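Q: Second attempt. The first request was missing the SMILES, so the protein and adenosine-5'-triphosphate are both included now.
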Amino acid sequence: MLDNLSVNQRAALLSVVMLVVGLLFWETAIPAQKAAAELTEYERLTGGGAPKAGVPPPSQVIAKAWEQLSNPFYDAGPNDKGIGIQIGYSIYRVLTGYILAAMVAIPLGFLIGMSQVAYKAFNPFIQVLRPISPLAWMPLALFVIQDSEASAIFVIFICSIWPMLLNTAFGVAGVREDWVNVARTHELGSFRTAFTVILPAAAPTIITGMRISIGIAWLVIVAAEMLVGGTGIGYYVWNEWNNLDLTSVIFSILMIGVVGMLLDAAFGVLQRAVAYAE
Amino acid sequence: MAKSFLSIERLTQQFPDGQGGTLTVFENASFGIEKGEFVCILGHSGCGKSTIMNILAGLAEPTSGVVKMDGFEVSGPSLDRGVVFQNYSLLPWLSALKNVTFGVRARYPDWSKSKVEDHAREYLAMVGLDGDVVHRKPSQLSGGMRQRVSIARAFANHPKLLLLDEPFGALDALTRGTIQDELLKIWSGTEQTVFMITHDIDEAILLADRILLMTNGPFARVAESVEITIPRPRNRTEIIEHPNYYAIRNHLVQFLGTRSKELAGKKSDEADNRPETVRIDKTATAPAEADPEPAARLRAVND
Ligand SMILES: Nc1ncnc2c1ncn2[C@@H]1O[C@H](COP(=O)(O)OP(=O)(O)OP(=O)(O)O)[C@@H](O)[C@H]1O
Ligand SMILES: [Mg+2]
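A: Got both inputs this time. The predicted holo structure:
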């Protein structure tokens, strides 16, 4: 019977089976809270009757997800906002920092890719700055910028700049000389050569860099928001942990994954659009 | 000697040989090409034909020597010199049509979009590409089709000098014949000068006014300049009956077969390495002779 299905159908079936098995396993592995009547004297005295913060079963997480997703944009004060609002803040910060980084990284990458001198001059700085954990910039950013919002954006900026910069430089430097010669024999100026030949030729490599960057930015924003607090999905996770609401923590972890996947998929579409076969 | 339209003066090209030394591809090569002339260059693989062509195109700087076109030194590429590259050099992210309009737009920046497209389509049709094929990307075309797009791109720009590096190498005999005819039609209708690299002796005899013969490298020389003394219009099937055809052909075959090796590797002691002019004409009363200082050549009769 399985033989009649396509590869995709078989894979989808297997995924569903794994999901169901995993959830069932999870559900049965969580011990039910004992009823108060069954507790011994000793347990009651030591506070065993208070509800324990345990890992919730998936059924609770699903119920939570349903509740949250049916009203994602409610706003009931600083510590109680819908998941949609929190994710919105995070995406806003990521995109702002990311776009600023792209505006610096892509032109600079072009320069570094085109000029040996620029490459050699910039390389030592890039090599030193690139391995620094973006969060290590946070104290300095908070001190200099004096604004937690802008500091979070700065951290995103600094973490997403490197893959875009290096990939752009790499892509531009690797453009086949033959194609540049086509531009030269047609007397295209450097500006038109950059836009009509080098940019499309290097686009797949540049987009790959942008895709890596958006992934890193999304990883970093969660940690950054846990530090600066206030709003955002990272803050939300931390806040729910302080409330010992593990159901919400698990739900928001899943949401972080889903949003990250969507951001990556958007760049996947872009990557396919600029790809070419030689 | 009167200044030629295109004059190549004491061109020397050296490359690092990869082992710390230098490889001299050719040394003090000098020759001229007249306006409207069709010149083919024959020589074994690796002797430096593409290197010469890149210098003529202005894409590469020779180690020493100058190239002058219309009296002006060639420095850098120009739209007046159209190139068909040995490896086609199409832009892979553009369709066949867009590859041609890319060139036309650069040449005629003030043409309207539709005029550019019509012009491009006309030249694509001339090389046998029309209909849906023109919207395919180079990776979806066969080698011969790619080559034809590249030819259309160069021809559509009406350069004063056409530089063709084995432009018909990947084509089947039939397509090759058609495009050769198109090339002759385009060339004879204009004042264009053509410099073409080929490995095909018969093709060279059919097309050229003059064939330059190169010895093997390193220290390759443009050793001979063979006039094709067969009147135009020439026709593939009729030229073989011309009394000069086999005489010329045998001379070329003999050069490529033995003398290109014998003459190879000799460093030039003289300053200038000019090719010796060879004129083989069985129809004339005078015997075949080598003429070291030819008078300015007139365009061969071609109509
Ligand atoms: N950039 C380069 N660096 C070093 N050597 C080179 C370079 N370009 C060409 N050469 C050498 O110069 C010589 C001539 O090369 P060229 O490409 O001009 O040959 P060709 O006559 O066009 O051959 P073919 O008929 O195979 O196309 C070869 O020996 C090649 O190895
Ligand atoms: Mg070559």
